[in-house]
Specification:
By secondary structure, the protein is an alpha+beta fold. It contains 4 helices and 14 strands. It is elongated.
Length: 283
């Protein structure tokens, strides 16, 4: 057996007797993930915050598109929100209308009681005027309550408008969709970009995919999850990982099936496109 394979086998099977590894002699490394970061708003690239080969994390700002107008819209929305908030908390009109209605009803009751005791002390017309005044006060209270309720709805609308304005400002940032390394910058500061236009390309390099083929008869159901080690020619250091995929299909021409393992690459010594020997630990 190839000495390199024996070395890998020893690293995977310490303490195990008579291991029977699966060996993929020519596994090829490829990317697990790569993404493009597009502009989300039209405008001039105002700031470029990263350089090529810089390591970035998901959500990190890569560039900023001119957002002066969007920031001003946020300030306007904040002022509208604050104004609506004040009106939604001010129930003085409702309280005043309640007092007026209470007084009007008291006047009607007092006049009604007086007429009951002294029928000639007030005319029917005067009682009717008092009743009409009470009805007006009740209508005024209803209007005040509706106005107060509308102020609360206006506050909700103002808060939603503010969130939309803040979101628009955020959309002027171009952000990294993944942890990775910037490998391409397609535009420079001062250039105009359109929504959807690709500005950055990011590769995930801390983990890679080692892919190859094995005879389908050697692919047991429990292969997924097994430890694996990759040896690159000229590099004595094994790189470890686990099998994450075994194809359910078999190539009818040669009876092989495709598998791949996720290989840790914290120091980025490995590169996509390299080939090596992949050894999969026995059960």
């Amino acid at each position: 057996m190839n000495p390199a394979v024996l070395l890998l086998l020893a690293s995977l099977t310490t303490g195990q007797a008579k291991p029977e590894p699966l060996v993929v002699e020519s596994a090829i490394l490829s990317l697990l993930d790569q993404r493009e970061a597009p502009a989300r708003e039209a405008g001039v690239l105002d700031q470029m915050l990263v350089k090529e080969l810089q390591t970035v994390v998901a959500g990190q700002s890569l560039a900023v598109i001119d957002s002066v107008d969007a920031v001003l819209e946020v300030e306007r929305s904040e002022a509208h929100r604050d104004n609506a908030s004040g009106r939604s908390e001010n129930d003085s009109k409702v309280k005043f209308a309640e007092k007026e209605l209470e007084l009007a009803r008291y006047e009607v009751k007092r006049l009604t009681d007086r007429i009951a005791r002294f029928p000639d002390s007030a005319s029917p017309e005067e009682l009717e005027r008092r009743n009409i005044q009470a009805e007006k006060s009740a209508a005024a209270l209803q209007d005040a309550q509706l106005e107060f309720k509308a102020a609360k709805y206006e506050l909700r609308i103002a808060e939603a408008d503010l969130k939309l304005a803040e979101r628009k400002v955020d959309r002027h940032r171009i952000v990294s969709p993944i942890d990775g390394v910037v490998v391409k910058i397609a535009r420079r500061a001062g250039e105009w970009v359109q929504p959807g236009e690709i500005v950055f390309r990011i590769l995930r390099l801390d983990k890679l995919k080692a892919e190859g083929f094995i005879p389908a008869t050697l692919a047991p159901p429990d292969l997924i999850g097994r430890r694996a080690a990759l040896k690159i020619a000229g590099d004595d250091t094994p790189h470890f990982g686990r099998v994450l995929f075994v194809s359910p299909e078999v190539n009818p021409a040669d009876g092989t099936t495709r598998i791949w393992a996720e290989i840790d690459n914290p120091g980025r010594q490995l590169r996509p496109g390299q080939r090596g020997t992949l050894v999969i630990a026995p059960e």
